[in-house]
Amino acid sequence: xxxxxxTPDAIEKSENASQSRNSDRGGLGPHKHLSGQSSYMxxxxxxxxLGRPVSLGEVFVKTHTRADGTFVYQKAKQVAEAYExxxxxxxxxxxxxxxxxxxxxxxxxxxxxLSIQEKDDIFFKCTETDDKGNHFGLGRP
Length: 141
Known about the structure:
Elements: H1 2-5, H2 8-21, H3 40-48, H4 56-64, H5 74-101, H6 107-111, H7 116-126
Protein name: Transposase-like protein
Region (Disordered): 1-39, 93-114
Organism: Cardamine amara subsp. amara
């Protein structure tokens, strides 16, 4: 095996792959995550052991932030911020709609939360897909 890895062709492929992994990606830095070899589905399953369902947006944030809360690269920060902003906007819209239709009671608006599917749909709108249809930051299905 080591004989193959030392061939000029293998060395060239290795260097090209390394450059690709570490490319600047439009000024936003190389694409990195912190989940290691765990799939995003396993990360999500482990997070659900906290006692509640977990959205893909939460998995994305968990796998793209360091222990100190900083993001591993700029694009991850942009996606996470867009996700949080859109969640807040939808919740604010639900609150204003709830106040208008609840006969002067705020019970309906304060008890309404977004489902996991609604949160996932918002996350999908905040990210992009590659040419194969894979959503950015979630790995392959």
